């Protein structure tokens, strides 16, 4: 979605310092990245395939979209709301803003992406963010699994 937008408009959209930084890293490494306001997430984060009927509200929209069975994404297990749809579309419900104080960053590759490559992208992203913001990493999670698994990320 980001790369299609860049091709169409000819530049990376300017949103906020952190969003702009992770968009630059996303394009540079060709990885899906996202930032969520951790305080807006009610339960644990669940990476899973949808069963169908879950809801998703894309950034900038007031309307909810129904999710088809078999789509994967990150869900709030308490509200069953999708936080990130197919790793490329983020939810308006948990979007990161300039007033957010607790960030959940997601960096996602695919089965051919090495862990070392992901770590390199993560380190560059964190170094870039630290130039503008003073923050502390509280927890890091690593999920690797096959397409039939799901994982709780306990917060």
Note down, in words, how this protein is organized.
The longest helix is centred in the C-terminal third of the chain and has 16 residues. This protein is globular. The strands form three sheets. A five-stranded antiparallel sheet has the order 7-6-5-2-9, with no helix packed on it. Strands 1-8 form a two-stranded antiparallel ribbon. By secondary structure, the chain is α+β, with helices and mostly antiparallel strands. The protein contains three helices and nine strands. Helix 2 packs antiparallel against helix 3. The protein is 24% helix and 23% strand.
State the separation between the terminal residues, measured CA to CA.
28 Å
Total beta-strand segments: 9
Rg over alpha carbons: 15 Å
The helix count comes to 3
Oligomer: single chain
- Inertia-based shape: globular
In percent, how much strand structure appears in the residues?
15-25%
Class derived from helix and strand content: alpha+beta
Considering DSSP H and I runs of 4 or more, what fraction of the residues is helical? 10-25%
Series of secondary-structure elements, N-terminal to C-terminal: HHEEEEEEEEHE
Strand order in the largest sheet: 7-6-5-2-9
What is the makeup of the main sheet? 5 strands, antiparallel
Low-confidence stretches: 146-155
Overall mean pLDDT: 80
């Amino acid at each position: 979605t980001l790369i299609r937008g860049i091709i169409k408009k000819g530049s990376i959209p300017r949103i906020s310092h952190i969003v702009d930084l992770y968009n630059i890293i996303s394009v540079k490494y060709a990885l899906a990245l996202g930032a969520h306001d951790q305080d807006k997430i009610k339960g644990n984060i669940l990476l899973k395939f949808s069963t169908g009927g879950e809801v998703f509200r894309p950034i900038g929209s007031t309307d909810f979209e129904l999710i088809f069975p078999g789509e994967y994404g990150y869900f709030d297990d308490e509200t069953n709301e999708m936080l990130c749809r197919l790793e490329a579309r983020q939810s308006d419900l948990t979007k990161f803003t300039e007033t957010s104080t607790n960030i959940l960053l997601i960096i996602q590759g695919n089965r051919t992406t090495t862990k070392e490559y992901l770590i390199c992208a993560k380190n560059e992203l964190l170094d870039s963010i630290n130039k503008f913001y003073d923050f502390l990493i509280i927890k890091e999670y690593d999920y690797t699994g096959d397409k039939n698994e799901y994982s709780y990320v306990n917060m």
